[in-house]
Amino acid sequence: MPSMAQGGRLRDPTENPNKLHDRKLDAFSGKQNLAQHRKSLPIASVEKRLMDEVRHNDTLIIVGETGSGKTTQLPQFLFNAGFCRDGKTIGITQPRRVAAVTVAKRVAEECGVELGQRVGYSIRFEDATSISTRIKYMTDGLLLREALLDPYLSRYSVIIVDEAHERTVHTDVLLGLLKNIQRARSKSFNDRVNIEKNKENNGTLSDKDNGVFLKQCQSRKFPPLKLIIMSASLDARGFSEYFGGARAVHVQGRQFPVDTFYTHHAEPDYLDAALITIFQIHLEEGPGDILVFLTGQEEIESVERLVKERLQQLPEGSRKLLTVPIFSALPSEKQMRAFRHAPAGFRKVILATNIAETSVTIPGIKYVIDPGLVKARSYDPVKGMESLIIVPISKSQALQRSGRAGREGSGKCFRLYPESEFDKLEDSTKPEIKRCNLSNVILQLKALGVDDILGFDFMDKPSRASIVKSLEQLFLLGALTDECKLSDPVGRQMAQLPLDPVYSRALILASQFNCLEEMLITVAMLSVESIFYGPREKLEEARTAMRRFSSPEGDHLSLVNVYHASDELLDKRMVGLSKEKKDKILSKWCKENFINSRSLRHARDIHSQIRGHVEQMGLRVASCGDDMLQFRRCLAASFFLNAALRQPEGTYRALASGQVVQIHPSSVLFRAKPECIVFNELVQTNHKYIRNISRIDYLWLSELAPHYYCTQN
DNA sequence: GAGCACTGC
Known about the structure:
It comes from Juglans regia (English walnut). The chain is an alpha/beta fold. Strand 15 (373-380) and strand 16 (385-392) form a beta hairpin.
């Protein structure tokens, strides 16, 4: 049994906010209540000071802990302080869609305006803004897209990058870009002022870093751009240094205290330790739900089984414990169970992946169990292979996890490792940009006019090998010229499409192969999480359902079949029905066919978006009908970098890297094992598995990708 | 014959 030693408190308990005070607020009428609530937020008392800081500093770092109110209040302060004069907008970026939407709704309510008017949001597939929007919440990825159309982000007077400590790829690219834009805008502003002063027209605005931005806008004047970087991590130094010693201010948070406990010794079996801790809490601690952080679906399912088994060994009266799993691949209706109250007298134990760390907040959590591990993706640029491995979390992740116990009252966090192990953890998680394939990032930067990728001012520079590998890949796809410039029209078109570059290339090729109709569906389906969902207990049924759609040609055509079947359903039965009704029928059909309806809907959204894009580009949208040969030849031409040949033992050799790989058992070609194939994904888990596979003819490779295969062989 | 954390355009 893991014995717990008390660790230090996370926060000073005297900072404990007054819950009674909050309850009193409920008695106020709506509007008064909101106003009172705003005034009670920690950030409210520093409004004037913050606005002075923004006026005097072009870049400001704000460190605000959970519950400080920074995300909802700061944009309102800026609006009231006059930062939207001359019709300018305040932009606030979020790493996640759901945050952009919920915060915008909240702020519109606080301002007493209709959502989409003065306060709005914009995320992919959904735009709730208008000409009068002055406070605009959006995802960071969307702002990056906006920069492609408006390189100076000229409509914004202030851009706030929220949750910057998460260091997603989008945040990191955005930070580098904003730094350039800010410099370029101040320079254009100052130069313009000087030009006007001296009544000269020959001012040259060339600047090594910002040449392109400046060239595009020489004749226009832009007011300087204010940047505010908001982070929840205690260490603002990194951001401050990156922005040339920018000023950092600290805003107090409002969290309840969480007691942290460690084990005396390292636990050899953390699942068993988690199990014991669950029951220890259940039997010995006061009411409150438990949140356990596990690394994946399999672990969650096995802990769930074990909890249920052990529960049966307890006396009748102690069995009131309800397990609820939550992970991203779980269908949404099952995810919802985590948010429901447990029946009276029951305690809920939520078995969650990282999804519960930031993406969703489950109410009622008083106890957190943290084994200190996470399943993380890493990328090997030399092999061009991703892997999913279980690694220790960082200190900031551990704090984020324990904080989940202090949302509504004081809580307890049980770390299933000794305190000495905690001290050895990295301070923060390695930024994603250092552990992913950079092809998309580089394509975007090239399209934004950044030619010298190796010299780009990243906050954390990816390895040279990783950059070079992606440049090489983009060159082989025809997106870059011999001089490493964006090619026209291919590279430019590829950068316009919100897809993995390989998929963008496939669309362009498909217009030449007369199968763009099919390829649009294929890449939309490949761009979402797994379409098929097979719960362990119904695996046979799921397999039978999947066979209804499977094509002997491979997974690509099988996915097209699923999409066509859903099309047919929507055409046949849904003319004139409301959107809700349609959604309901589609969900039912998905359930019957073991298809993840969230994934399919997502694919349908992507499909309609990219269809719009390719039509606008003037690509020819045609169907190859029953000519599967044509479609497979197009797959070979598109995915030639991912071709593999069968070996005598039944494994495959990937031609580009020489690696020995295996077909993933979820593929429709798992048994057929054709001689030559193309695939879309290579991930190392227990084996090196390739997924999403189609059968091709070996001879097509040298015919359709001679620039690669003739020189190689 | 296996199992894939999480985001985002």
